[in-house]
Design brief:
527 residues; six-stranded antiparallel β-sheet; single chain; Jelly Rolls; 2 domains; alpha+beta
Length: 527
């Protein structure tokens, strides 16, 4: 049986064990009162990378302190002290317990291990294509349950915990009840702070979309571009509607950060124009992330610990590869022969396309015209509104690029899950954790929670958005450890441009097979 090793400060282990024989539980610091007292050991993972392993302990929530007997390790896992120990709860990232016993969760894992040998084969054949995700969210599009959102995709460590907002653009709930399945479909640990449904009243023939400042706008029906030019030629059909027909190019063979351009033209008569962009990442950024883990190898825990306790400069360096790949830059022709940047889309994740609205500057052409009064009275032909998308080749799947007019701001309501069920049975503890921002719901591979919300009476008149917060932790694959190369890892973070040039040939050799291997190595039992 292949062992799954943990990656991430919050789940560092002193000794490796087979995950199928252990009931491993993680607890947020403020949920210390719920720690399993039957556990023979308590592990306290500290914000500075240290680890306390206690065989006898006591948590005092009044004084917010932890006392016990055991061993204190530093970030490099050297022994600092043995015997009586004490620390503050505020210094703890997560508590962990490991109990050897049969449980429904462990039993489920054992069954899955027996029926998904093919998954392991795909992962072993191409470790950089192993399925990975943050929490995935399924709900009906009117005809079937479909993947419509992935939460906080960039939050791969506790220090990167973030709020995420997804537009449920294709959601079509039946009646007032909205059911959302939240699933852990990869070898990961998910720490979910909340999963709220935000609703906004929608006028007839209009949609509601948020801007970067979390203001919600009623917008007109989207207009497809009149012209769409990409390196491969006309891309109008692919970007005309949010319909699953995506535009994706091949990566550059000399540098994974090489850029390409997509030029769009729209009717400029639209008032208060805004670009609506539906997109998701390709597997290129995921490949680079997994390659980074592989080069870190057995020292991955130390790298992640440095992220937790590091300075802003350390964080910047660790995020260097993502910055080098970049997002989707949105530029607008300025009328003077150049292009002005108005926004950059950085939504992380290869699973579900997200919808972003980018307000565009309104150009008053008539006001800039000059000449005689007679000339001013002549009709002025309004040039088209030209928008340019700039992105790394092969790094983004763009489903739609449409123009809307912002009509007015609208007020929203926030709904928390009324009922939370796990494997078909109501789970009050899970519901309470998602209602209390000081706690968190921790999920493991195979966990599936159904979140139920109740809409107001006029349910069909609302736009739906999913608001989530949390972080997730990848589990290391044994195949990655074999590629440990500290020099290549250091180059990737210190000189990402050079590293992405070196990595391009290896990626190109595997590019054509990545998509199939990725989805076939998905944790079994889900769509």
């Amino acid at each position: 049986m292949r062992r799954a090793r943990w990656l991430g400060l919050a789940v560092l282990l002193v000794g490796a064990g087979c995950m199928y024989r252990m009931d491993r539980r993680l607890y947020a610091p403020n949920a210390a009162r719920t720690v399993d007292r039957a556990a023979p050991f308590l592990k306290a993972h500290m914000r500075d990378g240290a680890l306390y392993v206690l065989s006898r302990w006591d948590v005092d929530e009044n004084t917010r302190s932890l006392r016990g007997s055991g061993v204190q390790y530093n970030a490099a896992r050297g022994v600092v002290h043995e015997g009586e120990l004490s620390t503050t709860i505020d210094s703890v990232v997560l508590f962990e317990t490991n109990v050897t016993r049969t449980s429904p969760s462990v039993a489920a894992l054992a069954v899955v291990a027996g029926v998904t040998a093919g998954v392991a084969v795909y992962c072993a054949t191409n470790p950089k294509a192993c399925f990975g995700s943050c929490p995935t969210f399924y709900l009906t599009d009117g005809s079937r349950e479909s993947l419509q959102a992935e939460g906080f995709s960039a939050s791969i460590a506790p220090s990167l915990e973030a709020r995420d907002l997804d537009v449920l653009y294709r959601a079509r709930p039946r009646g007032r009840e909205v059911r959302i399945d939240m699933v852990n479909e990869a070898y990961e640990t998910h720490v979910v702070r909340y999963a709220n449904l935000i609703i906004a009243p929608r006028a007839r023939d209009h949609r509601v979309l948020p801007d970067a400042q979390n203001r919600y706008w009623s917008v007109s029906a989207p207009i497809a571009p009149k012209v769409c030019r990409a390196p491969e030629g006309d891309c109008s059909a692919a970007l005309a509607a949010f319909d699953g027909h995506e535009r994706l190019s091949a990566a550059d063979s000399t540098s994974l950060s090489a850029r390409e351009y997509v030029d769009l033209e729209f009717d400029a008569s639209v008032a208060s124009p805004a670009l609506v962009l539906a997109s998701r990442q390709s597997l290129l950024p995921t490949y680079v992330l997994y390659q980074a883990f592989a080069w870190m190898g057995s020292s991955a825990a130390e790298w992640m610990a440095s992220l937790e306790r590091g300075t802003d400069e350390t964080v910047r360096q660790l995020q260097g590869p993502a910055a080098a790949l970049g997002g989707i830059d949105v530029l607008v022709e300025n009328g003077e022969g150049g292009w002005d940047s108005v926004a950059t889309i950085r939504e992380t994740g290869p699973l579900a396309a997200d919808v972003k609205m980018i307000p565009l500057p309104h150009r008053d052409v008539a006001a800039r015209s000059s000449g005689s009064v007679l000339q001013a009275q002549q009709p002025v032909a309004t040039p088209p509104l030209r928008v340019r998308l700039r992105m790394a080749k092969g790094a983004w799947r763009v489903d739609a690029a449409m123009l809307v007019s912002r009509v007015q701001q609208v007020q929203t309501q926030r709904l928390t899950p009324r009922v939370v069920s796990r494997n078909g049975r109501p789970d009050i503890d899970a519901r309470n954790r998602l209602h209390d921002t000081l706690q968190a719901l921790v999920t493991f591979p195979g966990d599936r929670y159904t979140l139920q919300y109740t809409l107001p009476a006029n349910a069909s008149e609302f736009e739906l958005f999913l608001e989530t917060k949390g972080y997730y932790l990848e589990w290391m694959r044994d195949e990655w450890i074999a590629e440990q190369n500290p020099l290549r890892a250091a180059e990737l973070f210190l000189d990402p441009a050079t590293a992405l040039r070196r990595l391009a040939p290896a990626y190109k050799r595997e590019e054509a097979a990545l998509e199939q291997a990725f989805w076939r190595s998905k944790y079994a039992g889900f769509r």
